[in-house]
């Protein structure tokens, strides 16, 4: 299966004698980062993962996680060594069956040196055996492993994987997953995709989850705790699996009254975005103290706080919209975050209009009018906000405003064709803001460089003529706040770690 290194006879003999890998001279270490300027050491260079197989065991009482990760990858350069992003304690690494040397470096790098250098374009199987207490590990001074009274949860953005599996941690390298987790009987393990099977033995129950479509590492999730799991199928035929911590207290009813609408809302969004891209949908609500929701692929993460004021279909719409915009079509670089958040926010605007709580136009006019020109809000460029402002409210609100401006400029027919065509065009892949502009120009037949520049890339409030041209109300007094506004903004409770 693995290509042998071939070299001219004499040189080969010399190399054998000296026990030097034959073509080592042309092989070099893979880069410790994939090349994203926002996060230079996230992801790695030199290989591309196609599948993660994670076989894990977790003890909630002690937060001990142990397991074996088997990674199927292909090299993209001649490699003498390569990195994985990981924080737990590694006991053994094998590359193509042979024990490999390994060490740690930087904030979260596991550097693996295979016994034999790897040639470009060859398949590689990497086995990593590890254990550790994830809650004791940090990088850059933070942890995103969330302990709960009955277990723990891995769900964060952009960093979550380091605490539970070794990976090429960047959305550019998507892969399929099998996640198999043994937990003590009575505890459940929730992850992405479909539950293939469960089995019980000697006091441990094993859950076998499968994600059969490419998934970014930050969209892989793991929840361990005592959950009530519900299953069903949407009217449109999408299987739904939801899970609720048995310890949600007063938020339990509102959480269920929101997340149980997943099937209905998936079908409703399909009307705008096209067929649901995955084999399963759903969400889970663990008993964490966090405030945010996250679009973990097929199995959305919801903090109980999202339901503290009653049911909230709007946040469910936001996270489900990401399944098309962000999960199936992922960003190329983290600067392209508008591809995710602008559209998930716009989906909430569409829902607001559907519910009679404010039209998309009213919401756009409100965003435009309620931030005066000297508001720092306008200094954030949704098309390239910088790592510190990646999840600033402007990325969401100005981002959705830009989408309404686009809609008004190209008309509803072209706009809704773009909205539905884009997730097909780049299904299961990656795309950038520039790719989106190109696609919208192609579908609408209109040049859109000026419009994108004004609404996504200028660090200032678009002036009245631009607003008028985009059919937004540039009036001096703010229009009334749409009824849906507060609930929509509550989705932004993302920042407190
Ligand atoms: N992508 C999430 C959403 O909008 C929000 C988010 C941003 C987030 N940063 C985060 C969630 C950090 C968890 C952690 O739905
Ligand atoms: Zn979002």
From TrEMBL:
Residues 309-455 form the Peptidase M1 membrane alanine aminopeptidase domain. Residues 50-219 form the Aminopeptidase N-like N-terminal domain. Its cofactor is Zn(2+). Residues 1-24 form the signal peptide. PROSITE patterns: PROKAR_LIPOPROTEIN. One of its GO terms (molecular function) is aminopeptidase activity. Residues 483-497 have a biased composition (Basic and acidic residues). It catalyses: Release of an N-terminal amino acid, Xaa-|-Yaa- from a peptide, amide or arylamide. Xaa is preferably Ala, but may be most amino acids including Pro (slow action). When a terminal hydrophobic residue is followed by a prolyl residue, the two may be released as an intact Xaa-Pro dipeptide. This is Aminopeptidase N. It comes from Streptomyces anandii.
């Amino acid at each position: 299966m693995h290509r042998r290194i071939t070299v001219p006879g004499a040189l080969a003999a010399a190399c054998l004698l000296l026990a030097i890998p034959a073509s080592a001279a042309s092989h070099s270490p893979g880069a410790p980062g994939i090349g994203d300027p926002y996060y230079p050491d996230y992801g790695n260079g030199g290989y591309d993962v196609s599948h993660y197989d994670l076989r894990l065991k977790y003890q909630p009482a002690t937060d001990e996680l142990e397991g074996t990760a088997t990674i199927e990858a292909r090299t993209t350069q001649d490699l003498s060594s390569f990195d994985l992003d990981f924080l737990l304690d590694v006991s053994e690494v094998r590359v193509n069956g042979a024990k490999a040397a390994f060490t740690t470096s930087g904030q979260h790098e596991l550097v693996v040196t295979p016994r034999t250098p790897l040639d470009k374009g060859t398949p590689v199987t990497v086995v990593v055996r590890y254990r550790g207490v994830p809650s004791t590990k940090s990088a850059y001074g933070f942890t995103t492993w969330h302990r709960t009274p009955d277990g723990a949860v891995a769900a964060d953005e952009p960093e979550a994987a380091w605490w539970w599996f070794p990976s090429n941690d960047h959305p550019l390298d998507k892969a399929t997953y099998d996640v198999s987790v043994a937990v003590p009987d009575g505890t459940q393990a929730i992850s992405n995709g479909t539950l293939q099977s469960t089995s019980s033995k000697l006091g441990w129950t094993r859950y076998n989850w499968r994600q059969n479509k490419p998934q970014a590492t930050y969209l892989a999730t793991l929840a361990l705790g005592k959950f009530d799991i519900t299953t069903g199928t949407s009217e449109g035929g999408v299987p739904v699996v939801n899970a609720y911590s048995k310890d949600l207290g007063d938020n339990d009813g509102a959480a269920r009254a929101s997340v149980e609408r997943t099937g209905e809302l998936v079908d409703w969004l399909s009307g705008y975005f096209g067929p649901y891209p995955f084999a399963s949908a759903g969400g889970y609500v663990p008993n964490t103290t966090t405030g945010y929701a996250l679009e973990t692929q097929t199995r959305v993460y919801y903090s109980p706080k999202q339901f503290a004021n009653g049911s909230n279909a709007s946040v469910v719409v936001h996270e489900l919209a990401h399944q098309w915009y962000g999960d199936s079509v992922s960003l190329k670089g983290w600067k392209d975050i508008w591809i995710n958040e602008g559209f998930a926010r716009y989906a909430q605007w569409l829902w607001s209009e559907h519910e009679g709580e404010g039209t998309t136009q009213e919401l756009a006019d409100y965003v435009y009018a309620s931030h005066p020109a000297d508001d720092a809000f306008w200094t954030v460029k949704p098309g390239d906000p910088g790592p510190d402002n990646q999840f600033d409210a402007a990325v969401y609100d100005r981002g959705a405003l830009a989408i309404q401006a686009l809609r008004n400029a190209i008309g509803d027919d072209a706009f809704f064709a773009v909205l539905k065509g884009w997730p097909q065009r780049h299904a299961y892949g990656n795309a950038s803001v520039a790719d989106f502009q190109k696609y919208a120009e192609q579908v609408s037949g209109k040049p859109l460089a000026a419009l994108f520049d004004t609404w996504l890339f200028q660090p200032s409030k678009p002036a009245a003529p631009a607003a008028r041209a985009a059919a937004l109300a540039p009036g001096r007094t703010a229009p009334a706040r749409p009824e849906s506004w507060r609930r929509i903004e509550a989705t932004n409770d993302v920042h407190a770690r």
